[in-house]
Design the sequence.
């Protein structure tokens, strides 16, 4: 009996360490691309089924800076980041568009999350998983900063702080001019 408790404790500890590593911010992997980058990378196109019933693609946002956030309701860092995204999206208003894409989650869980955090910007699903594949999603949250011309300006892995989010939104707006 004692051995079983020890083994269970070790397994639980290993799972906690694994979850921490997988869902913690990974600063070394985050990339700010300067606005005048010579290696401008076009953001991959996508189609998302919004919870409003409408479908949107990257081209629907052409001419406006776009912040794309992949998230899930079961993700602790996503829950930490949600109030920051909501606040900053409201702060910028119509200067920039935010879009949430649900990753490996249930529709019911996602809708409950949106309601809980009072998310007002559009959110939807990527039923085929193609957007997640094209954006090379390795975990959530992951956020992409796309300028008004469809150029990927920055990518952030892990939860964003308000300060970092504002900095990257400003970079994206500046690159859009």
Sequence:
């Amino acid at each position: 009996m004692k051995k079983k408790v020890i083994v269970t404790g070790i397994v639980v500890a290993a799972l906690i360490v694994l979850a921490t590593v997988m869902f913690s911010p990974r600063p070394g992997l985050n990339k700010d691309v300067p606005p005048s980058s010579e290696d401008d990378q076009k953001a991959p196109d996508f189609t998302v089924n919004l919870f409003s019933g409408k479908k949107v693609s990257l081209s629907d946002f052409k001419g406006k800076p776009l912040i794309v956030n992949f998230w899930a309701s079961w993700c602790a860092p996503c829950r930490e980041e949600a109030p920051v995204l909501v606040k900053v999206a409201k702060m910028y208003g119509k200067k920039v568009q935010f879009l949430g894409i649900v990753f490996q989650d249930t529709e019911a869980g996602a809708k409950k999350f949106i309601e809980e955090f009072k998310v007002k910007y559009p959110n939807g699903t990527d039923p085929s998983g193609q957007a997640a594949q094209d954006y090379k999603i390795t975990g959530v949250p992951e956020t992409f900063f796309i300028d008004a011309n469809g150029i990927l300006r920055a990518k952030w892995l892990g939860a964003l702080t308000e300060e970092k989010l504002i900095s990257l939104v400003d970079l994206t707006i500046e690159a859009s001019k």
Summary: Residues 2-23 form the longest helix (22 residues).
